[in-house]
Amino acid sequence: MRVEATAPSAEGAGAAAPPAIMLRGVNKHFGPVHANSDISLEVAAGTIHGIIGENGAGKSTLMSILYGFYRADSGEIRVFGEPLRLDSTADAIGAGIGMVFQHFMLVDPFTVLENVVLGAEGGPLLGPGLAAARRELQRLEADFGLEVDLDAVVGELPVGVQQRVEILKALYRGARVLILDEPTGVLTPQETERLFRVFRALRDQGVTIVLITHKLREIMAVTEAVSVMRHGKMVAHLKTAETSLEELAELMVGRKVLLRVEKNAAEPGSTVLEVENLSLVDERGVTRVDGVSLSVRAGEIVGIAGVAGNGQSELLAALAGILPIQRGRIAVCGGEVTPEHPRDAREMREFGLAHVPEDRLRMGLVGSFEARESSILGYHRDPAFNGPILTHPSEILADCRKKMSAYDVRPQDPVLLTANFSGGNQQKIVLAREMERHPDLLLVGQPTRGVDIGAVEFIHKSLIAMRDAGCAVLLVSVELDEIRSLSDRILVMFEGRIVGEVAGAEATERTLGLMMAGVVPEDAGVRAPA
Amino acid sequence: MEEAFLLSVLTLDATLRVATPLVLASLAGLFAERSGIVDIGLEGKMLGSAFAAAAVAAVSGSAWLGLVAGIGVSIALALLHGFACITHRGNHVVSGVAINILTAGLTVMVGIAWFSRGGQTPALPDGARFTAIVWPGAQALAGIPVFGTLYKELLSGHNILVYVAFLAVPLTWWVVYRTRFGLRLRAVGEHPEAVDSAGISVAGLRYRAMICCGVLCGIAGAYLSTAQNAGFGRDMTAGQGYIALAALIFGKWRPVPAMLACLLFGFLDAIAARLQGVELPMIGAIPVQFIQALPYVLTVVLLAGFIGKAVAPRAIGEPYVKER
Fold first, then answer.
1. Domain spanning A9-102+175-253: CATH 3.40.50.300
2. What whole-number distance in Å separates Cα of residue B261 and Cα of residue B263?
């Protein structure tokens, strides 16, 4: 069942050929949650089909059903016309379905070759199986432009290459349908483009590709047909050529959304944050931030772009007083931080800094706290909330209620456990907590990660409003669209250093993409780092 | 000079004897821990097996039947641990400690009820024990300097379980690094989701690993009561299960380094036996208690940091829950 070069898709998708995947009336409940309700889907063989929807729309559940991870409560599944009963992943693999998960299913200490053969070793002894696999993989690599060093240890490979290993793994198992869940989240635009070339090569050789994403742009760029999911239901099946970004966004959210944030030119005031030559070494001795200098003025948003893991998180944590710095100096709203005089997060807050952390559930909120408790974290010493010994629960409750209505948190219930709010509403609780203090400097990390489009719009507007009110905003995000639409100036980080700076208005995806890979294009208005 | 040589060969010979149960238990732990199951219950499995082997050997008069009984009990305990940790996602350490406490009490209780000897089993006659196997020509070759002594004292003259233990090391290496089962075993301890998504049952693999663990621990226990000694005494494992676990970590979950660690611990034990009552120059007689404590002290010191960071299988101790 290896992938062979079959007839081109144009003929393959003729009327006689059954669809690669056909679902009818698929339902799945998790307790009271109806994660998939009455889903129908048809994916034509030899095409690239997009499935789009917000977080929690039920896309991943549906794909897990298709891959045999979960059993559907009811409904019919046909793969290439054959009715299929999927009781385990092995059944799905046997039917020719391959899956590339958002979090890679790779064993880090294993070599590429060992990872690929795991589960398809070809006999009780490894030796002959590995040799046969090596030959087969070399052929697949050559056919699809998926070059990987088969003897490299997977944990040491960059994520883009690890993803290629995942694709090879599926192809090696004879996958004729390849499902990819949010495959571009960790890639630079150039790596994404390369991935899309692989998709097209695969499609031309007869492989059907199902691309699950929340990025509208990617759907438009690479798919032929798209299905939209909302609240566990399929709401539309469209031909990509006949739809538009705006229409897809509206279908996803169920109402009209503004994709582009409207804002006026910034009117920067005095410098609020000044970072000089900052370096940070983690506990393993690896330099995470390497001689970074930057400044942020009142009334401007400075965006830090970069592929995840290039030091942005550590920079943000250092500025917030969470990680100690080894070299350099931070001056913020009149306060100063040096390696000799470290400040903790509380002292930084007292300087007039607020911080919306990247990972809200790990650093921003306590899931098992009630919303009102989460909504004062970090400001819980405020005299307004405290008596001489005990807290004032009624004050906290009233304050939380006020913030919830101002930031449209739903449900508006201050005693509901934090973990029971959706991602977008949790993020609004954090934003309300940090922004309502009217800080001089706002540090924001990944403000819309795991947040639905409706809330994204609200969060973006709030950030612009903060800027216009004279707050200095430092924004760290791996979402390029977000960085480009919000930032007045953009700094790009690569391997702990700032590669360069571009004005927000002049930044193109190509320029930023190159800079995110450590290359400074000469023509594009890029300034070398200060 | 010749006497010193003989003495050191005899010490090494004792090292092998003492290290045998450690090697077996360490390899048992390797199978469990490589699959992601923390096995602090090696001690309990050895103890249960030691009792079962001695009791059955005493009743039946056959060391081999005793061995089978020991392995059986050890596998049952390993599966019990698996049932708690794999099927019911219990805490591995709690379950392991429970097995240790359970066997410590149960062996003595059953022993008293069965044999009425205060928890001991009757002393085993030679026929019901694994006794030394003298290699062909050991006496004839004994006269040859160096080689003869090595052959006679070090290689020849052990019981069969000692040879089994040291053959189990390359066998385990081969299974772990050269077979399909080994590849999957290593994968399931690192990233069970990857194994599951490759269409292999995580629970099935872990149960099989626990059976391998049970077999090896069973041999280790039977060795204690029917080969090294002639009968079961209460708590006769005396922490060797823990030392085996320490050796496994010291050896970074690899068969050959784990064996070397066991030999090191065994060597210290053998030295301790030799040094008892011996006057050392400058120091004088060393208190027996101090020497007996040495292997344990070394365990703590080595684990506390001398070996560098031991990187455990990543998913060790984490129950596998299918969700994303």
1. yes
2. 5
Give residues with Cβ within 8 angstroms of B132, minimum separation 6: B157, B158, B159
Enclosing domain of residue B300: 2-306
Alpha-carbon distances, residue A377 vs A319, A354, A372, A410, A411 (angstroms)? 18, 12, 9, 19, 20
* CB within 8 Å: A124 and B197: no
Whether residues B187 and A110 touch (CB distance < 8 A) is answered with: yes
Can you give the CATH number for the domain in which B233 is found? 1.10.3470
Decide if A118 and B194 are in contact by the 8 Å CB cutoff: yes
Confidence of residue A3 (pLDDT cuts 50, 70, 90): very low
Any B CB within 8 A of A123 CB:
yes
Q: Percentage of chain A with pLDDT > 70?
A: 95
C-beta of residue A299 within 8 angstroms of C-beta of residue A274 = no
Reduced to 3 states (helix: H, G, I; strand: E, B; else coil), residue A75 is strand
Fold of A271-366+438-516: Rossmann fold (3.40.50)
Q: What is the pLDDT of residues B85-108, one digit of tens each?
A: 999 999 999 999 999 999 999 999
C-alpha torsion sign, points A188, A190, A191, A196: positive
Pick from A311, A399, A400: nearest CA to A358: A311
- Give the pLDDT of residue B77: 97
Is the pLDDT assigned to residue B131 strictly greater than 80?
yes
Q: Is the pTM higher than 0.95?
A: no
- Looking at beta carbons, which residues of chain B come within 8 Å of A99? 197
Domain boundaries, chain A: 9-102+175-253, 271-366+438-516
A7-29 exposure pattern, b = at least 16 Cβ within 10 A, e = fewer: eebeebbeeebebbbbbeebbbe
**With an 8 Å Cβ cutoff, are B199 and A90 in contact?**
yes
The model's pLDDT over A82-131, given as tens digits with 9 standing for 90+, comes to 898 888 888 999 999 999 988 899 999 999 999 999 999 988 999 999 99
